[in-house]
Amino acid sequence: SPGLYIVATPIGNLGDITLRAVETLRGVGAVACEDTRVTGKLLHHLGIKKRLIRYDDHAGEADRERLLALMEAEPVALVSDAGTPLISDPGYRLVRTARERGIAVTSLPGANAAVLAMTLSGLPNDRFLFAGFLPNKAKAREDALAELAAVPATLVFYETAPRLDAALAAVAAVLPGREVAVARELTKRFEECRSGTPQELAAHYAAHPPKGEIVLLIAPPGETPAGEIDVDALLLAALTEAKP
Ligand code: SAM
């Protein structure tokens, strides 16, 4: 039936698409996507041929209105290049307006790099805060980290390989002593998840420049970095034992 179907797609491994997502993509009248070549390739792999409509970060009011009119008449899927639409990807205004106009909106669960990294990192997962991409400029980046310093949750950021060194340097400066994890190339051949202090990870990636897509995670305040000796606790234990 007509409406908007938000469909998550794989983040690297083409096997990571649900049966329902495939069925939905097969059933819709059109697919709105960021890049028609990227989505064209995925649909080709699935053996599906559909009308593709570009809807990316540059989409304006008129593009949105055209899509909204279409989804009042037939089912329309929204996908992004990879993972879950709207999560650091286009679609927020489209979904908001569709809901305001009483258009049926449904969302299908699927791959998401932030949640996947959270499950893999070994960092506390009872509370986590997804904060998207850190700002590009050094001062703004440090300010953003400082603003989140007291949040009692694991912090999750999207990063890119060329910016990882700058991000780790900022974490080392603003949140020294926090355990950090770098989850890279998730679901792909060279998947890795590495943890340590920001200084340790900065040294590692200076020697081995990272490639590919990255999620950066930072432990909540008060967690002891992995592999680092908690001198305060040792001292306290020694002092307590030494008591007459
Ligand atoms: N909507 C996507 C999702 O649900 O994960 C995220 C889109 S955002 C524009 C792209 C960023 O997601 C990358 O810079 C990286 O931080 C992260 N990402 C996407 N795929 C990844 C992967 N396979 N491994 C690690 N991080 C990934």
TrEMBL record:
A GO molecular-function descriptor: methyltransferase activity
EC id: 2.1.1.198
Catalytic activity: cytidine(1402) in 16S rRNA + S-adenosyl-L-methionine = 2'-O-methylcytidine(1402) in 16S rRNA + S-adenosyl-L-homocysteine + H(+)
Keyword flag Cytoplasm: yes
InterPro entries registered for this protein in UniProt: 4pyrrol_Mease, 4pyrrol_Methylase_sf, 4pyrrole_Mease_sub1, 4pyrrole_Mease_sub2, rRNA_ssu_MeTfrase_I, RsmI_HTH, SAM_MeTrfase_RsmI_CS
GO biological process, one term: methylation
Superkingdom of the source species: Bacteria
Domain Tetrapyrrole methylase: 4-201
SUPFAM superfamilies: Tetrapyrrole methylase
Keyword rRNA processing belongs to the record: yes
Role: Catalyzes the 2'-O-methylation of the ribose of cytidine 1402 (C1402) in 16S rRNA.
Stored PANTHER family: RIBOSOMAL RNA SMALL SUBUNIT METHYLTRANSFERASE I
Family per record: Belongs to the methyltransferase superfamily. RsmI family.
Stored NCBIfam families: 16S rRNA (cytidine(1402)-2'-O)-methyltransferase
Protein name: Ribosomal RNA small subunit methyltransferase I
Source species of the chain: Novosphingobium soli
Phylogenetic classification of the source organism: Bacteria, Pseudomonadati, Pseudomonadota, Alphaproteobacteria, Sphingomonadales
Annotated gene: rsmI
